[in-house]
Amino acid sequence: MAADPQDVYELIADVTRIGEWSPEATGAEWLNGEPGAVGSTFRGHNRRPWVKWSTICTVTAAGPGKRFAFDVKAAGRPVAAWELEIVPRDGGCEVTQRTFDQRSLLYKVTSVVTTEVRAD
């Protein structure tokens, strides 16, 4: 994308804006720690047509202009790890988003019913 890596990082790390570009997440608020710093936590809000739910997320990487990552838990159980990597390119940067499913088999089966997120 034609944008400065640091500017892109600041958008990504501001989780309060996640609802502006996510098809599922509707928003988030910081719970404790320095917003965006490793170890800080936030509550993420999500919605599908028939269900709403929240998760607790912990920032695991915060490299301004380079990488932002967080782990997600729901009801105290691991759900996913998200990582956004920013690589400078001529005229801007490239952003790669990775998601690692951390749900147990039982959690994967039951969450399909509510969230439509299937195990791959």
3D architecture notes:
The two termini are 29 Å apart. Strands 1-2-3-4-5-6 form a 6-stranded antiparallel beta sheet, covered by helices on one side. The longest helix has 11 residues, at 105-115. The chain has one domain (5-113): Alpha-D-Glucose-1,6-Bisphosphate, Chain A, domain 4 (2-Layer Sandwich), CATH 3.30.530.20. It has 2 helices and 6 strands; from the N terminus they run H-E-E-E-E-E-E-H. The protein is an alpha+beta fold and 120 residues long. A hairpin with an 8-residue loop joins strand 1 and strand 2. It comes from Streptomyces himastatinicus ATCC 53653. Pfam families: Polyketide_cyc2. This is Cyclase/dehydrase. InterPro entries: Polyketide_cyclase/dehydratase, START-like_dom_sf.
Query: According to CATH, what is the topology?
Result: Alpha-D-Glucose-1,6-Bisphosphate, Chain A, domain 4
Helix content: 10-25%
State which percent range the strand residues make up: over 45%
CATH architecture classification name: 2-Layer Sandwich
User: Compute the gyration radius: what is it?
Assistant: 15 Å
* Total number of strands: 6
Beginning-to-end CA distance, first to last residue: 29 Å
Order of helices and strands: HEEEEEEH
Q: Considering the protein shown, what is the CATH homologous superfamily?
A: START domain
CATH class: Alpha Beta
Spatial strand sequence of the major β-sheet = 1-2-3-4-5-6
- Unreliable stretches, pLDDT < 50, 5 or more residues? none
Major β-sheet profile:
6 strands, antiparallel
| Number of helices, counting only DSSP H or I runs of 4 residues or more | 2
Shape: globular
Q: Number of folding domains?
A: 1
Return the structural class. alpha+beta
